């Protein structure tokens, strides 16, 4: 995100209409909005794309070459779709499970490398893991090495918050949060933020051997 300017956002709708008036004219974060129709061609200088569609996996394929952060809005709430979208680096808001303030937060987060999941998207990942062969037992084994503080941090990280926001919520310095995250990644055998969140939510293999 450019520190001195508001964001430039592209709104892409695949087979659907944009349902509300976001962003407002006086939005403090978004300064320019471009509406895109298929095939999506993202203009230069775009900071983030909000993609509203019924089939996000297929729709995302058309945006892959743009190399711009994407937030998906879709009625799909099945674990497989959400995992595939999130693993590809896009945020995911389930239709009807977000407000315009949440959408603004997701866009701002995308501009600084954070991926945002709405509550229903997080729940879908957890429910999918619980339906697996080992269910909650596997998730608890994965989480067992984490301290209570590290578990708090992972809960917040899984919603799309960054180290600074987590620190404010838990009254910790950003440096302390980052140190905790390094320890968490090691304990979860995760390669980074996305991998750690997928493991925490039970949407990735528990541990690599």
β-strand percent reads 5-15%
Please count the helical segments: 9
> Rg to the nearest angstrom?
17 Å
Question: Helix fraction?
Answer: 40-55%
Largest sheet: 5 strands, parallel
Written as H for each helix and E for each strand, in order along the chain, the element string is: EEEHEHEHHHHHHH
What structural class do you assign from the helix and strand content? alpha/beta
Shape: globular
By DSSP, the count of extended strands is 5
Main sheet strand line-up? 2-1-3-4-5
Q: What integer is the average pLDDT?
A: 84
Task: Give unreliable regions as ranges.
Answer: 205-209
Cα(first) to Cα(last) distance is 38 Å
Structure description:
- The longest helix is centred in the last third of the chain and has 15 residues, at 174-188.
- Strands 2-1-3-4-5 form a five-stranded parallel beta sheet, sandwiched between helices.
- It is 42% helix and 14% strand.
- The radius of gyration is 17 Å and the shape is globular.
- The relative contact order is 0.11.
- The protein is an alpha/beta fold and 209 residues long.
List the main descriptive attributes of the protein structure presented here.
209 residues, 9 helices, globular, disordered C terminus
Q: What's this entry about, in short?
A:
Helix content is 42%, strand content 14%. The protein is α/β, with parallel strands linked by helices. A five-stranded parallel sheet has the order 2-1-3-4-5, sandwiched between helices.
């Amino acid at each position: 995100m450019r520190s001195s300017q508001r964001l430039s956002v592209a709104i892409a709708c695949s087979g659907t209409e944009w349902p509300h008036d976001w962003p407002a004219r006086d939005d403090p974060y978004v300064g320019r909005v471009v509406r895109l129709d298929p095939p999506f061609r993202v203009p230069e200088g775009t900071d983030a794309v909000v993609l509203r569609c019924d089939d996000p996996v297929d729709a995302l394929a058309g945006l892959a070459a743009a190399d711009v952060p994407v937030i998906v809005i879709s009625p799909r709430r099945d674990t497989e779709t959400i995992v595939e979208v999130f693993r590809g680096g896009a945020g995911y808001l389930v239709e009807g499970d977000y407000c315009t303030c949440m959408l603004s937060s997701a866009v701002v987060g995308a501009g600084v490398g954070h991926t945002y999941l709405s509550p229903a998207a997080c729940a879908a990942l957890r429910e999918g893991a619980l339906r697996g062969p080992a269910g909650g037992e596997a998730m608890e084994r994965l989480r067992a090495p984490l301290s209570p503080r590290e578990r708090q941090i992972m809960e917040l990280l899984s919603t799309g918050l960054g180290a600074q926001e987590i620190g404010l919520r838990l009254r910790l310095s950003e440096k302390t949060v980052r140190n905790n995250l390094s320890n968490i990644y090691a304990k979860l055998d995760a390669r980074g933020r996305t991998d750690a969140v997928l493991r925490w939510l039970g949407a990735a293999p528990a541990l690599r051997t």
